[in-house]
Specification:
By secondary structure, the chain is mostly helical. The chain contains five helices and no strands.
């Protein structure tokens, strides 16, 4: 999960909806209902937020990342 999300973050070039879709892919693989429960969100709102059709709120992204057992970290930009 972490490697996939990391690759998507590099490829996204600042496109938050692309990142949301990648998180949606991971959440579906893990079980959307469980991820929604762990994130404190309804399953329906999680599907909408991670559809890739729009950019979800950053707090939603953080909740989902935490529910997936992942964490964000910063590092210097390469190149």
């Amino acid at each position: 999960m972490a490697a996939y999300l990391g690759a998507c973050l590099e490829e996204a070039d600042g496109d938050a909806a692309f990142i949301a879709k990648a998180l949606g892919d991971i959440a579906r693989a893990k079980g959307m209902a469980q991820v929604a429960r762990d994130a404190g969100l309804s399953r329906e709102s999680l599907y909408k937020a991670l559809s890739g059709d729009r950019s979800p709120a950053f707090d939603t992204i953080l909740k989902v990342i935490g529910a997936l057992g992942l964490q964000l970290h910063a590092q210097p930009k390469h190149g």
